[in-house]
Predict the structure.
Amino acid sequence: MADTTLQLLSEHGCFGGVQRFYEHDSGAIGLPMRFSVFLPAQAVPGDARDKVPAIVYLAGLTCNEETFMIKAGAQRRAAELGIALIAPDTSPRGAGVPGETDSWDFGLAASFYLDATVSPWSQHYRMESYLTQELPALLAQTLPIDRERLGLSGHSMGGHGALTLALRHPGLFKSLSAFAPICAPTQCPWGQKAFAGYLGTDSALWCEHDASELMGRAAAAPFPDGILIDQGLADKFLEAQLHPHLFEHACAAVKQPLTLRRHAGYDHGYYFISTFINDHLDHHARILLRG
């Protein structure tokens, strides 16, 4: 059984709640992992002790567990809603895999949130198992977070992770959204590079981690309450890497409700995310707080 001991690295008062940064020994990864958590006042000892719902946010390439909490400005609205925010790191740290720091879009901080099957990546790059098995159990055991009311969101590579993990693990996440996600990684350079490195040359295996492919196979709408995606039209990665229209078409084919908002003048960064983050929190709250 994995060690459930959390090491508190830092804690900061924030909008009546607390912003914390933790480290723990991960059984799935085989290395220490870090994540950040914002707990609203409803979940802070000394106030109400009921467990609160949480949104897990997966960050993009080159980011870590701090990026979202520092840049997105999400805590104010989360505090008002009484929802916790969780931001895991974007990859293992300290794996020592040769070449893992050679490029910014593969290896360190670029896990693509899957379980690698190709050696030497397969030993530690097991982010899917970590995020869908170990971390939810850890949160429920050690923090006042309701495992039955988890939402999932993410940005770019993390948007890919959010869409694919939610589709690959039905029922685990009750609500879903993304900012500028990589919607069809089998058809873009980022995804092709990552999948070849982590999964090998079997294209059938690649398709198991492609949100547009997965959605297109659905027998019915997997998220009947809807999926929210925001995409900036001034995003320099839109044409070559992101392909939201392919996910849009896949959703339409299976009658999956999708709100895909395209915004003129917005790029790929956190100015864009911070502009629309409250809409995403409200989207999740509508589902997670439903009586």
User: Anything to note?
Assistant: The mean pLDDT is 96.
